[in-house]
Amino acid sequence: MSRSARAASPGGTIRVGQIVPAAAIDPLKIADGGGITVMSQVAETLVLTGGDLTARPLLAESWSPNNDGTVWTFKLRQGVKFHSGKTMNADDVVATFDRLADPENGSNALSALTSTLSKGGTRKVDDYTVEFHLDAANGNFPYIVSTDNYNAVILPADYKGDFEQNMNGTGPFKLEKYTPKVGASFVRNDSYWGSKALPDRVEIGFYSDYQPQILALQGGQIDIIQQIPVLQGVGLLKDPHVDIIAMPSTAHQQVHMRTDKAPFEDKRVRRAIALCLDRPKIVQGLMKGKAKIGNDSPFAHAYPSTDPNVKQREKNIAEAKQLLEAAGMKGFEATLTVEKYLEIPEYAVLIQNAVKEIGGKINIDQLDQGAYYGDAVYGKSPWLDSDMGITDYGHRGVPNVFLSAPLKSDGTWNAAHFKNPEYDKLVAKYIASLDLDSQRTIAGEIQNLLLDETPVLFAYFYDFLTATKKGVAGVQPIPMGQLILSQATL
């Protein structure tokens, strides 16, 4: 512990600024960083994962697989109480995952659970032991019930869908007041199972943009900005009155291209666009060095299973023009639909300018985050229905969700409408593998297949940046969007 942390005082109110949640705070449906931050004050998952990609006990004390990874047994922590006073047990865990895995409920968690865990697959052994009987072997299953899967917070078995009214979780803070579009306040949960929260209260204010948050931090109205984009927050990086918590992450902005519609049904066009991007320049210019180069697959350098021998894609305008010519095209026109979030609008302009070198014309349609996601189902979502789009993807400790939800033929987030049986088989093999060497071998095949097909661009993986007022200590951001404040001090 640093001297400043030792000198800091417990108690008081921690004031947080963040972007307005895009939708209601509903654990089943929530999908945006703003909502996840609010939910993380009051609700918890079985497992905690952070920037170091390590899975740690939270509401589960331990876990272990059977010989082939098709059944995982979790031992639950005893003495945990919901804010209502009810003791958490195996019935609550079973009900939570049956609720999430039931297609009738339309849960956002199906992005992680589809083809992995079905309703009825979560079974009670005794009051504090649960078995997960999987649809297929999974070597990294604990990450699916961790903070990586932000929907997987444990709720009471008799949950009625009224989370926003009472936020009845197991977390270190209890809801005091929630006002949609305005903010929320929380008070210490004195019945918390772990170390009691140091702050008396947490106040979260919602902002429609980042600049007002920055001014509020510099003006002393708030103590923390949950996440700052590099471009708008560049002034804070050198502000002597501000500390920046920078966490390397696997978070990224996916650029999808509809593989079933012109002009992107021809993979040569998709590859040509990929070859227009100068990735080192993007990292240094757009992201001010606060990112790592991507290679058009979910396999970030940070993942131990990534095959480092796969050749890095580089800008090559001559090859891009050759690919377009081979596809019988001298140029193309498309609309790029984007959400107003972080650096995505600026990234869209960068892509727009880059493809001009090969005769490409991209029109940008920028939407507020809520409008961009729509109902988050096919036919009712600009995200999933657009010909080309840019979508923010939060950090995950393993690449399984990135491999499955946006890229498998039956993926719930497959905005590229990419359907490739060979890819689907490789992903199933990767997910089933229990050892790192096998995972790395399969990963290399997946990386090369995606370089050839290029349904989605993964140009960079960015650092997660949280800004705090000088003197604030004990703040624990999680790149997935959760913000742990129980040990925060002023």
Topology of helices and strands:
Blueprint: H1 3-7, E1 13-19, H2 33-39, E2 47-49, E3 55-57, E4 60-65, E5 71-76, H3 90-101, H4 110-113, E6 122-126, E7 129-133, H5 163-166, E8 173-179, E9 183-188, E10 201-207, H6 211-218, E11 224-225, H7 230-233, E12 242-247, E13 252-257, H8 267-274, H9 279-286, E14 291-293, H10 317-326, E15 332-339, H11 344-354, E16 360-367, H12 369-373, H13 382-385, E17 388-393, H14 400-404, H15 421-432, H16 436-453, E18 456-457, E19 460-462, E20 464-469, E21 476-477, E22 483-484
Parallel strand pairs: 1-10, 1-11, 15-16, 15-17
Antiparallel strand pairs: 2-3, 4-5, 5-7, 6-7, 8-9, 9-10, 11-20, 12-20, 13-17, 13-18, 14-19, 21-22
Q: Oligomeric status of the shown chains? A: single chain
Give the second-level CATH assignment, the architecture of the largest domain: Roll
Overall pLDDT confidence: 95
Number of domains: 3
Q: Quick one: CATH class of the largest domain?
A: Alpha Beta
Physical arrangement of strands within the biggest beta sheet: 8-9-10-1-11-20-12
Based on DSSP secondary structure assignment, what is the total number of beta strands? 22
Largest sheet: 7 strands, mixed
Share of residues in strands: 15-25%
Distance between the termini: 15 Å
What class, by secondary structure content?
alpha+beta
The poorly predicted ranges are 1-7
Give the overall silhouette: globular
| The CATH homologous superfamily of the largest domain | Dipeptide-binding Protein, Domain 3
By CATH, the topology of the largest domain is Dipeptide-binding Protein, domain 3
Residue share in helix = 25-40%
Number of helices: 16
Gyration radius, to the nearest Å? Answer: 22 Å
Subcellular location: Periplasm
Domain Solute-binding protein family: 56-381
Keywords: Signal, Transport
Organism: Dongia soli
